[in-house]
Design brief:
- It contains 7 helices and no strands.
- With 183 residues, the chain is an all-alpha fold.
- It folds into 2 domains: 72 residues; 81 residues.
- Helix 5 packs antiparallel against helix 6 and helix 6 runs antiparallel to helix 7.
- The N and C termini lie far apart (109 Å).
- The relative contact order is 0.10.
- The mean pLDDT is 89.
Amino acid sequence: MFDAKKSGVTGLAFLGLAVFMAVGCAKPPTKEMTEAESSVQAAQASGAEEYANMEFRTAQDVLADAKAKMESKDYQGAKMAALDAKVKGDQAKSSADANKATVKTQAETLVTDLKAVVEGIKAAAAKAKGKNGAKAKAEAATLDTNFAAAQQAVEAGQYSSAVTQLQGVQTKSDELKALLGIK
């Protein structure tokens, strides 16, 4: 005989078991988490902190969210966040690579443009006489030292730092050219 009360309890028990099985047996997204972490690490290694800072921070934030969801056993949420973190990490790396190449070109162009200028200032300062001559010689020596440091930064792959240094060399070169009467 059909007992509705007993059938309802049994149905609820099966529903509870089905929910438990669906939630409790979900697998942690270890593969997706590993890929997301690798992507964010690759972005960092490519210089994303410097050359694609916003994209990199976003990737880190999404990865942190994925880790938090993993910790709370929200495996579906963790998987979705990990997939998003991987995409964002890949984008940060791509942006960093492109931006780094642009800054590298800018640094190399400044080195090329300033090399002859610095040499000309050194030569003019060596010939300068009097009070301005001593000052020009000292400042030309400092300029040459700063230019050499900027060149070393370029050779070391520190392009942003090199550009900043070279812009300082350019400004000081303009001042010294005025002091020495160089056009």
